[in-house]
Each structure stands twice: as C-alpha cells, then as structure tokens.
Amino acid sequence: MITFPITKQLRRLHADERGTVAIIMGVLIIPLVGALGIGFEVSNWYMTTRGMQNAADAAALAAATNAGSNYDVEAKAVAAQYGFVDGTNNISVAVSNTAPCPAGGNTCYSVTISGFTPLLLSQVVGFKGDTNLNGTLEKKLSSAAVAKPTIQPQDVCMLALATSGAAQGIRTNGAPTANMNGCNVMSNTAAQCNGSNLNATFGLAHGTSNGCGVTPVSNVPVVTDSYASFASNIPPLSSSGCGGTYPQETHHGNTSTVAISNQVSGSLNLSAGNNFKCGDQMLTGNTVINTPPGSPAVLVIENGQLDLNGFSLTTSSGSAVTLVFSGDSGSYTHAPTDNTNGNTGLLDITAPSSGPWSGVAIYQDPSLTSGLDVSAAGNSPTWNITGLVYMPHASVTLKGAIDKSNAGKSCVVLVADNFTISGTAGILKTDIGQCPQAGLKMPQAIIAGRSALVL
Fold first, then answer.
1. Which of 124-133, 162-171, 211-220, 336-345 has the lowest mean pLDDT?
2. How far apart are CA 422 and CA 419, in angstroms?
3. Contact present, 176 and 425 (Cβ < 8 Å)
4. How far apart are CA 162 and CA 224, in angstroms?
5. Looking at residue 32, what is its pLDDT?
6. CA 360 to CA 227: how far, in whole Å?
7. Nearest CA to 84 among 60, 58, 111, 115?
8. What's the pTM?
9. Quick one: average pLDDT of 292-312?
C-alpha cells in the first residue's frame, strides 16, 4: 500500500495535542476576565456598603439619643465623620424621626445612606449598572439603620412649672451654698445657676440648663402638672361658713394683730375631713395640730395667710394635715408667712399618706393668681415638711434648708411657678424610696438614655 506524505502529516496533526490549552484559554479569556472583574467589583461594593452600614448605624444611634429638634443635623454630622457627606459626591443621607418600629408605632429614628460607584471590569460581561451619570455607568449602593430611643424617668423634688412665662424657672441669687442633697431639679423653661450646682444630681430644663445640677441636661420635655387635679377636692366657698367675712391682720410698727377669733395657740384639734378658717390666721403661741387616729384632716384657710408670728405649728405624732389656701384673687395673702422681725417661726407638718389629699402638705388653689409669693421659704419661717408643697403660680425664694417633719418620712417635693435659690437653701432629706410611703407620687422628668439599634 502506498501512503502519501500529506496523509501521514494529517494523521500526525490529528494525534498532536500540543497548544490545546492555549486555544482553550483563548476561548475562555473573556468570561474569565469578566468573572474576575465581577469578583473584584462585588468585593469593592461589599466594602463600601459595609462602610455605609457602619455610618448609618452610628448616625441612627446619634439621632435617637439626641431626640431633639436637630436630630437630623446630628445624624448627618456623624455620617460625615465616616466620610459620607450629604449632598457631596452623589452621597445622600436621609434621616427620619417617624420610622416604623419593629414592635409597632412610628417613633423610631432611621438613617439611609446611598451613593454611586462607577463600573469597572463588570462591563466586560455586559453589566450596565443602575444609572448613567455624566456618561459613566454606575451602580447604586445603600445601607439603612433604625434605632429606638430609650428613656430614663427621673424623679424630681423641685419643679418650676413656669406657666407665667418666666424665662428661667430656676435661678440662683449670688453664689449660694445650696444643697439639694442629690435631688433632681427641673424647669419647664431654662435654668441658670451661677456659683453653685445646687448639689442636685440632675439639673434639668426644657430650655438650656446652665450650671444647675452635677449633670446639667437641656432640652428635656416639659413636665406636666399632675397635681392641678387635686383642686377638685377643695370645697366650694359657699360651704365654708365664712359668709364673706375674712378678718385680716393689721400692722403697727413691728407688731401685727388680728381679731381674737383668728388667733391660734395651744392645741388645734381638727376633725377628719374639711376644717375651715376664715381670713388671716395668726399664731399667738406654739400650736400642735391633733387629728383623729388614722383620719387625716384638711385645714382650709379661705382668703387668708397663716402667720406663724414667731411660733411653731406642729402636727403631733400620728396626726396628718393638708393646709389648703383657697378663696378669691385680690388683696389677700394665700401662703404661710412669718411677719415677726425675728422670723423664728417653725412650720413642722406631716401630710396624709392616704385619702384624697394623699401626700399633699400645702396646696394653693391653682385658680388663685395673686397673693401667692413666698419670699423666704425654709428660713422665715423654717419649714420641716413631709409631703408636697404646691404653689403653681407663686414665685418662691428659697433661702433656708427644708428638713422633713419631725414625725414624718423623708420626702419633700416643691412645685411652684419659679424658684430663686439663695443662701443655704436646699432640701436636707428627700429619700425617693420614702415618698411612696408618704403617699406622694413624685413628678417625673424624662431624659434620653442610651439608644438601641432595632434594624
């Protein structure tokens, strides 16, 4: 058989496998480069998105912790620290304080950070991205976070309602050595303390708290007046038996006098429930209030003051009383006073721990608008009180240290329109744990605690 040379060459070529890999690689180079490109870019996208997520988490926590009117400004400032500046390089930082919460409601804070990154090798496999910016194909990346603010209720032993519009509900006069003994103070407007932080744990204010409290906290939500409803317990004027007759003190130099019917001394025996006094009441000797065992009494002083006149008014052991100042606005004084030059009077009373006036020691009718101010609380006269002192429209100057009553729990809470604090003013003994035992629910302010991510 004759074999032609060309046939031999073809058979040899058919059996030769050299160069096969090169051919295969030539065929696969395009998808291989595409796969490598996709892997590279996906990794880059992941790293960028991870950075966005870290920024969104931190910004959402900052917004929820701020919980104020500028929550969005703070969130965007935090995102900028991570390199994501809203409105720069096609970066968008969207912040909301009405985001849905996983547990329900729409009080959560959300931050969404989005931006674009140009496509590189992924175009080799035909990926076109999400948009075309200035002729460049780009992919959109975004991350979102949702945080829920937490709150910390804080019991308050001094509350300035500031319904009069007082710019500073709490302020100091000079540089007092005031001592609130670790109590919290709260102003529904601003608070300004110069020279003393009052030794209050938290100095809280709806506006700016400047120097008040070991820890001043501003932008605290307004604390509502939860004690105004006690006014419904005040008997109508027609039931007092005063008949429109209200003897008033007269002053002669350094002395004051009042009708014999309005002079009080010795034992003041009150029945359970309402007891009425018409006009100014002036002590002419040390006086002890006695009430039936287990039955607190209410002493309603209509259109008059309680002038200790240098003497002491004390509840006996086992007795409890609420002093209510009611009547009409006008020239009357509706407050405890001490009109003696020595100002040595002592008001030492315990509030009832149960019943309609539970926890209330002194109560000015919130309908009164004049004759309410107290110029030297805790000093002239001295106050030893267990319970609430409620003077919602009064300007109170606190000059002395208020202690607990001799026979009561360590619980003193002051509520007024505004306070000026001077001298050695303060509250010596308020044990938050003893206020419930004294029958008093303390006012509470809400401050922001540490926020938590929920999404």
1. 124-133
2. 10
3. yes
4. 11
5. 65
6. 9
7. 115
8. 0.75
9. 94
pLDDT at 42: 83
- Tokens, residue 443: 């006012």
How would residue 353 be classed by pLDDT, with cut points 50, 70 and 90?
very high
Spatial CB neighbours of 61, under 8 Å, sequence gap ≥ 6: 145, 147, 451, 452, 453
Is the confidence at residue 157, as pLDDT, over 80? yes
Structure tokens at 100: 């849905």
**Could you tell me the two tokens for 243?**
């008949």
Q: Is the pLDDT of residue 273 over 90?
A: yes
Q: Return the CA Rg of the chain.
A: 38
20 falls in which pLDDT band (50, 70, 90)? low
Q: Exposure string (b/e) for 403-417, b if CB count within 10 Å is 16 or more?
A: bbbebbbbbbbbbbb
Distance of CA 139 to the CA centre of its chain: 45
Q: What is the 3-state secondary structure (H, E, C) of 253-268?
A: CCEEECCHHHEEEEEE
Return the SS3 of 73: helix
Element (H, E) at 178: none
Question: Which residue did the predictor score with more confidence, 76 or 176?
Answer: 76
CA–CA distance, 51 with 357 (Å, rounded to integer):
59
Mean pLDDT value of segment 164-187: 90
Q: What is the 3-state secondary structure (H, E, C) of 5-69?
A: HHHHHHHHHHHCCCCHHHHHHHHHHHHHHHHHHHHHHHHHHHHHHHHHHHHHHHHHHHHHHHCCC
Q: Which helix (H) or strand (E) segment is 89 a member of?
A: none
Say if residue 381 is preceded by a cis peptide, omega within 30 of 0. Answer: yes
Helix (H) or strand (E) holding 247, with range, is none
Tokens of 59: 């910004």
So what's the pLDDT on residue 343? 78
- Least confident range from 16-25, 151-160, 357-366, 380-389: namely 16-25
Q: How many residues make up the chain in this entry? A: 455
Q: What is the DSSP letter of 228?
A: G
- Closest C-alpha to 426, from 200, 223, 211: 200
Q: Are the CB atoms for 375 and 342 separated by under 8 Å?
A: no
Report in angstroms the alpha-carbon separations of 305 from 128, 256, 386. 85, 13, 20
CA distances (Å), origin 271, targets 51, 190, 289, 347 = 73, 43, 10, 20
